[in-house]
Amino acid sequence: QVQLVESGGGLVQAGGSLRLSCTASGLTFSWSTLAWFRQAPGKEREFVAALSRMSVSTYYADSVKGRFTISRDNAKNTVYLQMNSLKPDDTAVYYCAAGFPSSTSEHARAYDYWGQGTQVTVSS
Hints:
Elements (H helix, E strand, L loop, with lengths): L2 E5 L2 E4 L4 E8 L7 E7 L6 E6 L6 E3 L7 E6 L4 E6 L8 E8 L13 E2 L3 E6 L1
Parallel strand pairs: 2-11
Antiparallel strand pairs: 1-3, 3-8, 4-5, 4-9, 5-6, 7-8, 9-10, 9-11
């Protein structure tokens, strides 16, 4: 059974930083493409960042480019999202996802497995 468990969310002031973690079990982690999505209250789930297998390529939403960094540690079966210069608009529940698309994808349907989400709140 595949499980993805996120951690690291919390409350932070605008301009601050957080690092989210997502630890996976039950899948061939090193061969999976990993991604982060987020969903704010009353809004649809949106893509944040993706990282291909073997960390060959990354892909970021324009809204987070230059502020967020996705990375992975295959030895720990963990994917990270380093979030800097946070803004109130970044407030959302953040979800990690894993799958086996042919390349990094911003589409939720490309990913087979999802975590339960972790809340990030950025105060102004």
